[in-house]
Write a structure and sequence with these properties.
Blueprint: H1 2-20, E1 27-33, H2 40-50, E2 55-62, H3 74-91, H4 101-105, E3 108-110, H5 127-136, E4 144-148, H6 153-165, H7 168-176, E5 178-182, H8 189-196, E6 201-203, H9 232-240, H10 244-248, H11 262-265, E7 287-290, E8 313-316, E9 319-321, E10 324-326, E11 333-335, E12 340-342, H12 345-348, H13 351-364, E13 385-389, E14 393-397, E15 409-415, E16 435-439, E17 447-457, E18 464-474
Parallel strand pairs: 1-2, 1-4, 2-3, 4-5, 5-6, 13-18
Antiparallel strand pairs: 7-8, 9-12, 10-11, 14-16, 15-17, 17-18
């Protein structure tokens, strides 16, 4: 009888966990960092380690860049990991799966202390380039993301060696696993990689023209959205001070806050992110697959010379975005009077959400579970994919959503026209109810429409999770 009761209790607990936790497959990532070229690499490592239970970190490689050409600094990565090690036991009070300090230290590697293509070719292997190949050869079908925060020549050397030592079939299989996101081009190996490996999945805003890059949405000032969350005061209060040894490792901003973080933001499981679909939009921005035109670029205007792209790449895309703002009376949120229409807003539209998430995880470094906030759990009463006919009505419902801390929840349903094939804006009201009724647009061919549930708790800081519903609309 006792065994029977224990089995029932175990099954109930398992069922509760299945309802209160999002199921996901961890994204694998190897980071290439020109750490010490700019304090922002160290900032990004602080954030990355706070998600090390949700992102499967496979390597952290110190590299060069156009800003840091002749040395690599793996010890600076290790210093951040030592800070993490001091708070890791407390992080485990909030979520499971945070790796140990020792495990993370074993993943720190070095690339060659040479700039760009000077470090690519016969006899130019490094422990970093060999490590990438080793991880690729593991019996793991998951894609391997290469998150490039500086120069890309360590990856270029891996690809060079694969091409020259593997059969064509083996090379194709290994390269098909790679997913690359580079923070612009910070050496001359990026364009070499794209030209020589035309099938490689590659996200980049080419050249070092940072003003023309989607990722700069993380630290750009916008009139009409909350810029406080990237202010030096916010950083000091929510990240650096009174948040333990890891927060103390977060340096002041010298150029721009966390310019490398967008390369892994879309790998965090939050219900919005889908790393295999950059065109759907996510915390790290939205990107489309095309061959960009740089024919009007002034020669010599970039430290890393911009060369014509020879094939399609995932690069800048434009969103039209009107923020919702708090309303003192009546409906709790209303649309603002300002509308953005550019590529940086594809990332910045989510900035307050991912900054609050960062701040909450920093709180976990010292706080007990009861003292801290934890993300809500959105639950749909229907499938994440729906098929309807032209002009047919349908409902979206997330009334079963919960919060682990018992916080009150706010619902906001968004139509995301740029993510689907149907580009018209579908209006419905009220957008902030847990269930909404929508009429499908009139179509003459099959179209897809994306709706995003943004579920936010009223804890401190307020935390947000999402559900994406893809509606296929068939012609009558």
């Amino acid at each position: 009888m006792r065994a029977h009761l224990l089995l029932i209790a175990f099954l109930c607990l398992s069922s509760f966990k299945s309802l209160s936790a999002q199921t996901y497959q961890k994204n694998r990532v190897v980071v290439l960092s020109d750490i010490e070229a700019d304090p922002d690499d160290t900032q990004s490592f602080v954030r990355l380690l706070l998600y090390s239970n949700q992102i499967d970190i496979k390597g952290m490689v110190a590299t060069t860049s156009c800003w840091h050409r002749t040395s690599v600094e793996p010890q600076s990565i290790e210093k951040v990991i030592h800070g993490y090690g001091k708070v890791q036991p407390n992080l485990l009070k909030h979520e499971e799966g945070f790796p140990t300090e020792k495990e993370l230290l074993s993943l720190v590697k070095s690339g060659l202390p040479k700039y760009g293509m000077l470090g690519v070719g016969d006899g130019k292997d490094s422990e970093g380039s060999d490590w990438i190949i080793k991880i690729l050869e593991e019996d793991d079908d998951r894609p391997l993301w290469i998150s490039v925060w500086g120069g890309a020549n360590t990856l270029a050397q891996s690809l060079y060696k694969i091409k020259h030592t593997k059969s064509e079939r083996e090379a194709k299989k290994l390269i098909s696993k790679l997913r690359v996101y580079t923070i612009s081009d910070q050496d001359d190996s990026g364009i070499w990689i794209r030209n020589n490996f035309p099938d490689l999945f590659y996200i980049v805003s080419p050249g070092d023209h940072y003003a023309s890059a989607t990722w700069t949405g993380i630290n750009s000032f916008f009139k009409g959205i909350n810029n406080d969350v990237i202010s030096n005061q916010w950083i000091a209060e929510n990240i650096q001070q009174n948040h333990g040894a890891l927060g103390a490792e977060y340096p002041d901003v010298s150029w721009g806050v966390e310019g490398d973080t967008p390369s892994f933001l879309s790998l965090i499981p939050n219900g919005l992110n889908n790393s295999e679909h950059p065109e759907w939009g996510a915390w790290g921005g939205r990107y489309e697959l095309y061959k960009p035109d740089f024919s009007n670029t002034t020669k010599g205007s970039s430290i890393v010379e911009i060369a014509p792209e020879t094939r399609k790449i995932w690069t800048n895309a434009i969103d039209e975005y009107t923020p919702y703002v708090y309303s003192e009376y009546g409906r709790a949120v209303t649309k603002d009077t300002v509308t953005f229409n550019d590529y940086k807003i594809t990332l910045a539209r989510w900035r307050e959400d991912f900054q609050n998430d960062f701040a909450a995880r920093m709180d976990w470094c010292l706080s007990s579970y009861e003292e801290a906030n934890h993300p809500p759990v959105p639950v749909l009463n229907h499938s994440e994919t729906i098929t309807v006919k032209s002009e047919e009505g349908f409902s979206l419902d997330a009334s079963k959503s919960t919060d682990p801390d018992g916080d009150s929840l706010s619902f906001l349903w968004l139509n995301y026209p740029e993510a689907g094939s149907y580009k018209g804006n579908i209006k419905f009201q009220p957008e902030n109810a847990h269930a909404v009724y929508i009429r499908a647009p009139k179509v003459t061919k099959t179209e897809t429409v994306h709706f995003i549930l943004k579920l936010t708790d009223k804890g401190t800081p307020a935390l947000t999770r999402y559900k994406r519903v893809i509606v296929t609309v068939l012609p009558k």
